[in-house]
Every structure is written in C-alpha cells, then in structure tokens.
Design brief:
transmembrane helix (chains A, B), elongated, Anoct_dimer (chains A, B), mainly alpha, Anoctamin_TM (chains A, B), 3% strand, 660 residues, intracellularly calcium-gated chloride channel activity (chains A, B), two-stranded antiparallel sheet, homodimer
C-alpha cells in the first residue's frame, strides 16, 4: 500500500527516507568532490545547522585558491633555493664564521656552516613571495567574509528568513540545577567579578603552561649539553624542540577540554535571560580562552623567543645560571613554522581522528554486543537504536574548531604558506565527518531557525583584522626580509646579496667572556681572538663596544616603517574590496523589490475582490427584498467603515514593510 | 470667517503660517541656544532637509565637549609654558648657540635665542596633552558617528521612513541640454577616461598651485634677504609666511568654486540613471577635488616642509640656486598651526560672511527699489516677492562645507586643539544662517523623502579613519613629542629635560661651507669654528662626518613605533566604542517589535471580522430564503476559498515583514 505499492508497480524505482538520501548524497567520503545538498540539510536539520554546513562549504571552497597560491609560493621557495646567495654563503666552507658558544662552559665555538641545512630550509618560508602571499591572504579573508554575507543573504531569502526576528524565537530562562537557582541570589556584580577572576586565572594558567615549556626547554638543553655522549649533544636542539612542541600540543589539547567546560559553567552562573545571549556569552568566553590557549606558544616563538638573550659576555640568566633560549641559526621563522605546522596538524589529527572518529568507534564497539542482545524483538529495534545515539549538544564546538583553524590559516600565514592546504585537506574530511556524525551518530536535533551565524561572523572579522597586524609584524620582525632588503639597497657594495651573512654578524672579543663561562677543552680556544654572533652591535674595537650599532636602529626603523606601510595598504585594499562587493546579490535585491510590489498589488486586488463580494451580497439582498431599507443602511455604513479601516491597514502595511 | 473669526472671538491669540513660526522659532540668531524644531522643519521642507538640520544640530552639540576639552588642553599649554625647560633654555642668553645661516651669502650666523618667542609659542600646541587630545578626538569622531546612526534611526522611525525604499522614489534621467544628449552617444569608456583625465588634471592644478606658493615663498624670501633695509630683512619670515598663506587661501577659495562646477559638469556627461546615483557621483567627485584642494597645502607643511633641505655645506637647490625652505626654529608644528588656523578661519569667514551673507544682501539691495515700484498693486505682491527668490539647488554645498570643516576638526587636531572651538562658533551662526536662507531667501524647495544622509555618512567615517593615521604621524613626525620623550628617558643624564636643545643641534665646521656661500660681511665670521643646525648628524670630528647619527635612527624608530602603537590603540578603542553602542536605540527597537506584533494581531482580527461579516450575510440570506441551496453552496465554496487565500497572504506577509 502507498509508496511500496508504487514501487512494486514500477512507478518509482526505490524510496527511502530523507535520512538515507542525506547519507547517500552527503555523509559519505565518496562524495567529497560534490557540493553539499544544503537545501536537503536545511529541510532535515533546520536553518541553523543548514547555515553551519553552508558556511563550512563556502570556507572549504575558498581554501582551494589559497591552497593553490600557497603551494605556488612554497614551490617558488624550492626553486629559488639554489640561487639564494645568503644560504649559499653560509654553506660555503671557505668562508668560515666562528660563532660564539651556544651555552656556557660545555658548548664550544662552532662553525656557521654547520647550520647550513637549516638556513636552506628556512629560505623555503622566508622569501619575498611570502610578503605577497600574506597580502593575498588578508584580502582573501575580506573576500571570504563578503561572499559569506552574500551567500547568507541568498539563503535567508530562499529559506524565507528575511522577516525572522531571532530574539522572538526563544525566550527560555536556564534553570536546570539547584546550584544555578542558588546563584540567582548572588548579585550580578559578584558574578561579573567571579567571571573576570576565573578568566584571568585560566589565562594565567595558559601562560604558566607556556612558561613551563620554556623552562623545560632551557633546562633540558642545558642538561643535555652536559652529557658526555657526542651524538646526544649534537642533537640537543632537535630533541628539545620536538619534545617541547609535543608537550605544548598535549597541554593545548587538555586545556581546550577544560576551558570548554569552564566557559559553560561560568555562563550558567551568569543566568542570561535568553538562549541567544547564553550562547553568545558562552562562545565569547570559550573563544577567548581557546584562542589564548592555541596561540600563546606560537606568539611566544614569533615575537619573544630569542629577543631577550643578551649578548656574549652579558647574557640574560634565569633561575641561577640558565641562559635564555635563542632561536636556531636559520632564524626564528623556521621554528615558528615548525611550531605552527605541528600544533595545527596535531590538533586536527588528534581532535578529528581520535576524538571525533576514534572515541565514537570505541563506544560503538562497546555498545555493539548489547545491541545484538536486544535485537531479538524485531519491531522496537529502530527507536531503541535511536535512543542509544548521543544527544545533540549545539554547534559551538564545530564552529570553534573551524574558527581556530581559520586563525591558523590567516594569522601567521606569512610564516607557513602551506597552512591553507592542510586546512583544505582537513576540511574535505571534516565536512563529511560532521555530516556522518549528524546523520548517523547523533539523535536528530530540534530544528532551530536562525537568520545568520551570529557572533561567529564578528569573531571571524576580528581575526581577519588581527591577521593584518600580526602578519605585518611576522614579516617585519620575525623574518629576515627587511634586513635583506636593507642590505641589498643600502649597505651592499654592488647591489648584490654577497656579504649579507657577514653583515648580520657582530664581533665579540673572546677575552671579554666572563670567567667560568669560557668553553672547556676547546680545540679552537688557542687560535681565535674574535667569535661572531647574530646581532647588530658595535665591534669590540669601537668606543661604545657592544652597544647597538647604527645599523641596528636603521634596520629597526625600516622594519617599523614596513609594518605601517603594510598595515595601512592592506586595510585600504580591504575597505576597497568590502565597498566594491555589494552585501546583497543583485538578483536577490531585485527579486525582493519585485516581490514587494507584487505583494502590495496582491493586497490591493484582494481588497477589491472582497469589496465586490460584499457588494454582490448586498445587491443580491436588494434584488430579492425591496423592503428593509433601515436594515440595509446600517449594513452599508458598517461596510464602508470596514473598507476604510481595511485601506488604512494596507497603507500602514506598505509604509512599515521593509526590505533589508 | 475661519481662523480670523476664531482669533476675533479670542479662541486663539494669534495665527500665522508655519513659515513664520519657523522664522520665529528657528531662523533667528536670537534663538541660537535653543534646540532646532526638527519636526517642524521636516513638515515644511521634507525629510531630506530635516535630516540635514538634524545632523548639523547633532554635530554642533558634539562640538561643545570637544571645544571644552580643546580649551583645557590649550590652557594646559599656557600654564606649563613657564616650566618648559627646552624653551627656557632656548631663551637663556648665557647658553648661546650660534646657528648656521638660513640663506647663502646674504644671511649671517644667528643666535638661537632670537627664536625664543616662537619656541615658547609652539609649546602651546606641542605638549603631552595634545597626544591625549588627539586620542580623545578620534574616539569623539567614532562616538559622533554612532550617535548619528541612532538619531537617524529614531527620526526615521518617528517620520515613518523605515519602510522607504529610496531607489523607488525617483527615477529621472537627466536630459536638460543638447550637449548632454550628444554626449549620450559617447561610449561609456570614453566618459570614464575623460573623467579620470579631468580629475587628475584638476589635482595636478591643485598641486601646481601649492608648488607655486612654495616657489613664491622660496624666491621672495631669497629676494627679501638681498634687501639692504635691516627691518625688511629681519621680518622676512613673517612677511613671507603671512602673504603665502593668504595666497593659499585665495587659491583654495577660487579653485573651490571652479571644482564644484567641474564636478557637476563631469557628472552630467556621465548621464547617470537615477537622481540618487547622480548625486552620489557628483558628491564623490566634488569631495575628492575639494578635499585635495583644502588640505594639500596643510599636508605639505605637516609632512614635507623642511624635510628635503639637505644640510649645511650640502643644501638641496631648486631652480639654479634657490635653497629648499626650512621650518621656523620653533618647529614645523607652529607653522602647521598657523596655516591651519588661517585657512580654516579664512574659509569660514569668507565663505560664510561674504558668500552667504554679503552677496545675498547686496542682491537684496539691488532688487529692493524694483520691489518698491511693483508694490503698487497690493494683491500680487506675495507671489511676485516669492518669484524673485533664488531657486533651491540642493544640499550638497551645505554638507560639503560642513564635511570639510569636520576634516579640519579631526584630521590635524593634534596640531591645533582650538579647531573644535572655532568650528563650534562658526556652526552656531551657520545653523541659523542656513535656516534664514531656507526660510527667507530661497524658494520653498520640493520636499524629498530620504531615509539617511547617504554617501555623506561614508565620507565622514572615511575621514574619521584617516584622522587616526594622520594624527599619529603629526604627533610622531611633525611635533617634537618623541624626541623629548627619548631624550628624557634615554639620553638625559639625570632624567630632566636640561640639555635637550643642545642634543637636537648638530655641529658644522664653517670651513666646510662651499665657496661663495659663506656669509658676507659677517661680524661673527672671524671668531667661530662651528655653527649648529637642527638635525641628528655626526659631528665634523667623526669619521663619517655629517652622516645621520645613531640618535637619528633611534629617534626615527621611536617615532614609527609610536605611530603603530597609536594607530592600533585608537582603532581598537574605536571598534570597542562602535561595538558597545547599539545602532538602534533600545526604546525604538522595542517599539518596532511591539508595533509589528500589534500589526499582525490587527490583520488577524480584521480577517476574523471580515469572515463574520460575510457569514452574517450568508445566515441573513439563509434565514430569509430557505430555498436556493445550489446558489448558496457555490457562494460558500467561493467564500472558503477566499478565506484560504486571505490566510495565505497573511502568512506570507508576516514571514516577509522585516524590522531593520
């Protein structure tokens, strides 16, 4: 009967619920190359989830061009690596630079050519194309936000959301547990104080974690350099960096989970009035905490590491005799790049694979045998199965993951042009993974209408703005771009890069090393007078020995001038892009206008017909009874009054009616 | 009869048209302290003009706090002038600095103490309070724009403009004269090329005018310094500066008139499709031209003057032997301040008093006798009088004047904290002057509806953004704020400002002056070895003599760092202010929401009543005729169909209805 009869009669080939259709067309890895069936998703899950997947889809699409440009920039680095004079000079054995020891007493003087491979690798990410790429990515972010505004407008038109006033959708006071009602009695000021206290406590916790890892790095590298084993000592840097980044990653993953819970608890004790304000406050708090957590170690490497080292003979010491850590000879940019790639990839792999695939699988396997037991009675199977599914707990974690990724793609893109590629690869999986989760692993969520993605848009646009200034600083301060440029156009004799390495290294008179910090058992010690270190300082034979040299200040000026130029140029271009792309697609705005006039016409026509209908009754009445004039007059008067009020309401309707 | 009978019966005391009421309550200088009767203005002149006066009123109100703060900042300068060590040191006769001559051959060495008064005066505008004031003004501009958005929203609610779709208001192709229709045939690309060409031509014209004045200044000061008259020579700088600024002012006033006409002509040949696009394009072009025209000389003084002078012994020469001009010894900020105040005040006085009061008065007087002649027949007097009035030509010149003034108030406020005060004084007159013009001197304009002030808002917000970066540069580069700070915290021996003047002056060995450029007949020449000049350069006894010194680069770094810090801090605060003040006032948004639900209720009630009415007809029908069942059924069917369609339309209405 019904659909099955039709199938039996070959009217239809097959029939299955929307659920299964969604699974076939959307929630499989096999269809990764296809656009998502957004309208179906919206029909099944509601507008809010539909908007999330539409946003995720657009973001993933936008990652394609940026990945391509990122790969080109990376390839440019690979191709020009052979023609890069500074790294060539560094590898050149004839041109030896004897560097000052990297640690007190146990480290020896060393040859700069031993850092040759790092220098070559860092050229991959530290070349002029990166400057172009970070301008490109800033404009990309603006363009993405603009296109999203347009897509959102289009969806909200086709999904009939233009008139939706979200605040009216839900007005639900959260009062689930006792302790909340108890907190109700707390004064608002106490809640705010508590919130501020907790947030600062959490941020302090993050900073201490970062600091802890720094201390770990300093002490371990010091400890390892005492080692008598030659191979241990030569691999100190690699060992320490690798372990430290992994510790960072683990700390981030753990704190991430804690912070999510803390933010939720904090928002609950605030007792916000509506679902919407609850969500917004939760998101803001969670975002603040997770942002600091994810980026603190990266910020440290980008802007602070190696900047408070002091100089040979006058190092900065922490904790009784531990020297502050320096960047690798290839520059801090290389380390930033390693840090970024490991944290980004690790976070994605672990959070996606372990938390989103692995743990549900494990749970599945554990519940599998149970299911087999209860599957004896055939009928109740489906709802029992559905009951075992996890409940839906909101889109916040999904958005949060993507926004943090958006940060990796935009904030430090100057140091890691492959970030968009990794994000793209992750997202192609992520879309289908989320789809699978929604279709097969979660109970079907209540549909919620939503006009836009809410506060996430503001967060995205904030990240976009922040990325401009951060990229400006990464290029100007962390990379060697400005010193190279300065050397080529100001200090170089013949406009070439020959002699750049020599120019960036200052001299140090080894006899000025403090007693007890000289290298022990050094084969060099007898032969050398001066060792070199990377900084712009006056040579030992100058009057103001070891003070910052004129070059230092000139290069610093150039760096800062670059920041100003870059920031204002990119901001200007962003405003231009924003201004040139209209927020509402032209076809939609025309459609809305047309519809509005059709609607007004329709109302007027309706009125006209109504009038006619009523009149026809009256004439009908009249024709049949010539008597009853009194009765008739009353009716006519009430009718005319009715018509007037009707017209009034149309007038007020058309004046109030608004097109966004 | 009518109103006059009522007055005679003492029901009313008096009666007069809205016109006269407006004159009494609004268009008189006597009521300058009162709020404007915006609703009356809107009723008489329409929404567009109402919005202009509302905007002007809000702007004038906002000028009050900024004037007060500006006066306080200025007073702070006056009070601390005695305790300012650098200007004191400069005036101190014992501490003589012999400065290098200001021109070749004819100028002598001079004592820095002779510039004492300028230095003291420049302290009035160049003190730490100015930094605070320019941050204040940047936030003030943001706050003003936010408050305007709110006021606009409020007005558009009370004036029933929320539903207004402006593009539908007018669709009028401009085709007045033959040459336009002829231009119609020109291809669009030619028009665009022509426009670009003309605009660049005009901008070139402005720059040549500025350059011309510079040349005038250089040559005149050279010519005057040849003079044998002692008093002429001592007043060279004052004479030249004063005349040059006046020439600048005259050029600005003349070009302003030309540019207005050119912009209009250019937009006419573009043949835009609607009145609105016509206006927007005209405004953009006129604004671009007038902006460049008004600010080019000020930009020159702020950022370029005195920066390409060269140094003693190696001056930069233009036109065979004329040296580039330097700033006065008190610094360029003082000159910027003079330039700003003269151009701002001159523009306001001349454009207001001469163009807006004087010329209409003169015309009035010329038409007065005519009126006396034609006033014999009593009846046609009023419309004859009205016919002699000028026609209304749009609000663009009024807005333009105010926007250029807004630029003076925000863009360079760091160098002239009294600008808001002058603007306030001007605007108190301007409001009533414009009012008078609209009420008594112009024919009553056609009322035009408008939802907002259109493109002017974007221009204002653009000026606000630009002001942040310009003020940052004025403080960092033009003023002596950063060098003072640097000296106090880095170079000074005891943390005081003693010795600052000496620190900013470099040494020059007079024997290095090129032959023929030494001062003739100098009484000093025999006794001195070194003269001083204001710059950070290596002394003659250094290895790299006269190169930029380390201090130069260090100070430059500090200046640029300040720009970055200032810009980002102010931008962050502006975003915060923008975010914290909601665009729609709370009472209005609640009112709109309430109204919407009332409207929906009303429609539903209407439907219900309609249904009842129709049903009563049917029962009425039925009661009177038990027969005619066939007829009855048809009618009932059509009625239920009608009801259905009616409900459908309400549903679509409520889903389409939008609140901005």
């Amino acid at each position: 009967l019904g659909i099955s009869t039709l199938i039996a009669n070959n009217v239809y080939d097959a029939a299955y619920p929307l659920h299964d259709l969604l699974y076939r067309e959307w929630a499989r890895y096999g269809v990764f190359y296809k656009f998502q069936p957004i309208d179906l998703i919206r029909k099944y899950f509601g507008e809010k989830i539909g908007l999330y997947f539409a946003w995720l889809g657009l973001y993933t699409e936008f990652l394609i061009p940026s990945s391509v440009v990122g790969i080109i920039v990376f390839l440019y680095g690979c191709i020009t690596i052979e023609s890069d004079i500074p790294s060539k000079e560094m590898c050149d054995q004839h041109n030896t630079f004897t560097m000052c020891p990297l640690c007190d007493k146990f480290c020896d003087y060393w040859n700069l050519s031993s850092a040759c491979s790092t220098a070559r690798a860092s050229h991959l990410f530290d070349n002029p194309a990166t400057v172009f790429f970070s301008i490109f990515m800033a404009l990309w972010a603006t363009m993405f936000l603009e296109q999203w505004k347009r897509l959102q407008m289009r969806l909200s038109y086709f999904w009939d959301l233009t008139g939706l006033d979200e605040e009216e959708v839900k007005f639900q006071v959260i009062e689930q547990t006792e302790h909340i009602i108890q907190c109700f009695c707390l004064k608002a000021s106490i809640v705010i104080k508590l919130t501020c206290m907790y947030i600062s406590l959490q941020i302090t916790l993050t900073f201490s974690a970062v600091f802890g890892v720094i201390v770990y790095r300093i002490t371990t590298s010091a400890a390892l350099s005492f080692s008598t084993n030659e191979t241990t000592r030569s691999n100190v840097r690699v060992t320490v960096t690798a372990t430290a980044v992994i510790i960072n990653l683990v700390v981030i993953l753990i704190l991430d989970e804690i912070y999510g819970a803390v933010a939720k608890w904090l928002t609950e004790i605030e007792v916000p009035k509506t679902e919407k304000t609850f969500e917004e406050r939760l998101i803001l708090k969670a975002f603040l905490l997770k942002f600091v957590n994810s980026y603190a170690p990266i910020f440290y490497v980008a802007f602070f590491k190696g900047r408070f080292v002091g100089r040979p003979g006058h190092y900065v010491y922490v904790f009784e005799g531990y020297r502050m850590e320096e960047c690798a000879p290839g520059g801090c940019l290389m380390e930033l790049c390693i840090q970024l790639s490991i944290i980004m990839l690790g976070k994605q792999l672990i959070q996606n694979n372990l938390f989103e695939i692995g743990i549900p699988k494990m749970k599945d396997e554990r519940t599998e045998p149970k299911k087999m037991d209860t599957s004896q009675p055939k009928d109740p199977q489906q709802w029992d199965l559905d009951y075992t599914l996890e409940p839906f707990t909101g889109l916040t974690p999904e958005y949060m993951e993507m926004i943090i990724q958006f940060g990796f793609v935009t904030l430090f893109v100057a140091s890691f042009p492959l970030a968009p590629l990794f994000a793209l690869l992750n997202n192609i999986i992520e879309v289908r993974l989320d789809a699978k989760k929604f279709v097969t692993e979660l109970r079907r969520p209540d549909t919620v209408r939503a006009k836009d993605i809410g506060i996430w848009y503001n967060i995205l646009s904030g990240i976009g703005k922040l990325s401009v200034i951060i990229n400006a600083f990464v290029i100007a301060v962390t990379s060697d771009f400005i010193p190279r440029l300065m050397y080529q156009y100001t200090y170089s004799q013949n406009g070439s890069m020959h002699g750049f390495i020599n120019h960036t290294l200052s001299y140090f008179n080894v006899s000025h090393l403090k007693a007890g910090t000289q290298p022990e058992n050094s084969p060099f010690a007898q032969n050398i007078l001066f060792c070199r270190f990377k900084d712009y300082r006056e040579p030992p034979w100058s009057q103001n020995q070891y003070e910052f040299s004129k070059q230092y200040w000139a290069v610093l000026s150039a760096r800062l001038a670059f920041v100003i130029l870059f920031q204002n140029l990119v901001m200007f271009l962003s405003i231009l892009v924003d201004w040139m792309i209209p927020d509402i697609p032209k076809d939609i705005s025309e459609q809305i206008k047309k519809e509005k006039s059709v609607l007004v016409d329709f109302f007027l026509k309706e009125e006209h017909e109504k009038l006619k209908l009523v009149e026809s009754f009256i004439t009908h009445d009249k024709r049949k009874h010539k008597s009853g004039a009194e009765d008739q007059r009353i009716r006519a008067a009430s009718l005319s009054q009715f018509n007037q009020s009707q017209k009034g309401s149309i007038a007020s309707f058309s004046s109030q009616h608004t097109v966004v």
